[in-house]
């Protein structure tokens, strides 16, 4: 496995972890440790990231054609993303800005693909 793919995988794991942590702190009023439900989601998300066969070419799971999350977990991660996404700018501004830039690039790339 290439060094770039591994660093991309690790970066994705850090981002999803921080988003779940933020969600749990704000929604479930936890302090240091995650609630059981969020801990389970985090472990599941990290495992899915470790096993992702498309890491080399994908940008975000939401853009993937194969959805490997179980329906329950997929709905939970969607809730986390909807809640934490807009708030990341206040908690992790550099990460949030780079995510927006990456999203715009991916959107343009996909639009270009659709033209052909």
Total count of helical runs of at least 4 residues = 4
The H/E string reads HHHH
- Tell me roughly what share of residues is in helical segments: over 70%
Structural class: mainly alpha
Q: How many strands appear in the DSSP assignment?
A: 0
Estimate the strand proportion: under 5%
Which of globular, elongated, flat, extended, rod-shaped describes the shape?
globular
Uncertain ranges: none
Radius of gyration: 15 Å
Mean pLDDT: 88
> For the terminal residues, how far apart are their CA atoms?
31 Å
Task: Characterize the biggest β-sheet.
Answer: none
Detail the topology: elements first, then pairings.
Elements: H1 3-27, H2 36-51, H3 71-91, H4 93-115
Characterise this structure.
The protein has about 120 residues and is mostly helical. The protein has one domain. Helices cover about 75% and strands about 0% of the residues. The chain contains four helices and no strands. The protein has helices at about 5-25, 35-50, 70-90, 95-115. Helix 1 packs antiparallel against helix 2, helix 1 crosses helix 3 and helix 3 (about 70-90) packs across helix 4. The N and C termini lie far apart (about 30 Å).
